[in-house]
Q: What sequence folds into this?
C-alpha cells in the first residue's frame, strides 16, 4: 500500500523494538524514540530509513521538536504508535506521590505530548493514523496495580473521545489492549513501590507472584502482535479498539458480562433517580 513513515515511542525493547524491526524489513521509514539509543544498534539500520531519537517523553517541547525534525527528514508522517509505558506495582495507599505522578507523567501525559505534536501535521495533510497501547489493565482493574490501571483507563477515555473528534479529518485511532505478552513488561520493566506496607502484603503479593511466574512464559507472541499493529495501517476499516491475545479477549468478555449483570440488578434503583 505504499511506503509509510512511522513514529514509534518506547523502542528500546518489547513491542516497540519489534515494530521498528518489522517496519525496516518492510521498507518503511521509522522515527524511533528511546531513552537508550544503543539498544537499537543491533538493527544495523540504514540512516536514510530511520531516525533514532533520544527523547524524554515528559518534555512536551522536545516532542513537538521531534515531529518537526521527522517531517524535515522524511517529508511526512503517516502513523504514530504511542507505545511507551511501564507498570507500577503497589496498593493505592502505599504508593508514594512521586511514584504515582511519574506513572501518569510517562503513561498518560507523555502519550498526550506526542499525540498533540503530530495532530496539526495530520490535519494539514488530511490523513493519519494513531495507535495507542493501552492494556487489558485499561479494561478491568486488578488489586496491586491500581495506578497502572488508572493510567490505562485514562488513555481509554481520552482516545475514545479523540477517535470521534478526528472522524471528519480522515484520521484514524485504534486503542490496542494486549493481554500478557512475552516482553520485558513483567521483568525488568516493572516498577515495584519503594514504600510497601505490611498490611497490604496479602493484597499485592498474589500479583507480584503472578509476574514472577508469568515472565518469559506468557502466551502472547510480540512478533505476531507487531505484525497485526502494522497491518492495521492498511486496513480500510480500522477498529476503535482491539484486544490482543486469548486471555485479553476472555477477560474483557467476562468483565462486560459482569457489568451487564450489575446494571440490570440495580436498574430499578438507577431509574428511581429521575423526576417522576
A:
Amino acid at each position: 500500500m505504499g511506503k509509510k513513515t512511522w513514529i514509534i515511542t518506547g523502542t528500546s525493547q518489547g513491542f516497540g523494538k519489534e515494530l521498528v524491526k518489522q517496519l525496516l524489513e518492510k521498507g518503511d521509514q521509522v522515527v524511533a524514540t528511546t531513552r537508550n539509543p544503543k539498544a537499537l544498534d543491533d538493527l544495523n539500520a540504514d540512516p536514510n530509513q530511520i531516525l533514532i531519537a533520544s527523547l524524554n517523553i515528559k518534555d512536551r517541547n522536545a516532542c513537538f521538536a521531534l515531529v518537526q525534525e521527522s517531517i524535515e527528514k522524511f517529508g511526512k508522517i503517516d502513523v504514530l504508535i504511542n507505545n511507551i509505558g511501564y507498570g507500577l506495582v503497589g496498593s493505592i495507599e502505599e504508593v508514594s506521590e512521586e511514584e504515582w505522578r511519574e506513572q501518569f507523567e510517562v503513561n498518560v501525559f507523555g502519550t498526550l505530548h506526542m499525540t498533540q505534536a503530530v495532530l496539526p501535521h495530520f490535519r494539514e495533510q488530511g490523513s493519519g493514523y494513531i495507535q495507542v497501547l493501552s492494556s487489558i489493565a485499561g479494561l478491568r482493574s486488578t488489586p496491586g496495580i491500581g495506578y497502572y490501571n488508572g493510567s490505562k483507563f485514562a488513555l481509554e477515555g481520552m482516545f475514545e473521545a479523540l477517535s470521534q473528534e478526528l472522524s471528519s479529518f480522515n484520521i484514524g485511532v485504534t486503542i490496542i489492549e494486549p493481554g500478557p505478552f512475552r516482553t520485558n513488561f513483567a521483568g525488568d520493566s516493572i516498577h515495584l513501590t519503594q514504600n510497601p506496607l505490611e498490611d497490604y502484603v496479602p493484597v499485592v503479593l498474589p500479583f507480584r507472584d503472578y509476574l514472577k511466574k508469568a515472565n518469559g512464559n506468557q502466551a502472547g507472541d510480540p512478533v505476531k502482535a507487531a505484525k497485526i499493529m502494522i497491518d492495521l495501517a492498511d486496513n480500510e476499516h480500522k477498529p476503535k479498539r482491539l484486544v490482543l491475545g486469548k486471555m485479553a479477549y476472555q477477560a474483557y468478555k467476562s468483565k462486560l458480562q459482569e457489568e451487564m449483570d450489575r446494571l440490570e440488578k440495580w436498574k430499578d434503583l438507577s431509574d428511581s433517580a429521575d423526576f417522576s
Observations:
- DSSP finds eight helices and nine strands in the chain.
- The chain has a mean pLDDT of 94.
- The first helix runs from residue 14 to 26.
- The beta strands are 5-8, 29-34, 50-54, 79-82, 88-89, 128-133, 171-178, 191-192, 241-244.
